[in-house]
Amino acid sequence: MTVYIVEDDEIYGEFVLKALSKHPGLKVKWFKSAEDCLMSMNGVKADAYIVDYKLPGKSGIDFYEIVKPDLTEEQKLIMMSSIEDGNMVLSFIKKGVRDYVIKDDHVVNSLISILEGKEDDLYIFDQ
To answer: In this structure, how many other beta carbons lie within 10 angstroms of the beta carbon of residue 126?
Structure first.
């Protein structure tokens, strides 16, 4: 599975890249902006996109709106943010974003669960 990460934070992007690259079956590439990713795609689509909501230039939602017409049911786009705002998440859902993760201590496990299609097994709240 080819995964494109779009994350402008150097440290966080490197962290997610290294963590996901250790997972068997994932070929991961990291871009620092939506524009860089779109230019590099050149007609080649990823199986999954992990996109930070707050990016310089085009936002994560702008990126989603651009690639949305070409996304298949099998492809995933995961919106990622450090902002915990229910209204923002609701706005993502209304636009068609199916997967959203918070940048927290469980972000890698959350991302892998979604990439593996096990998001129904994902528990947001630890007890």
So the answer is: 6
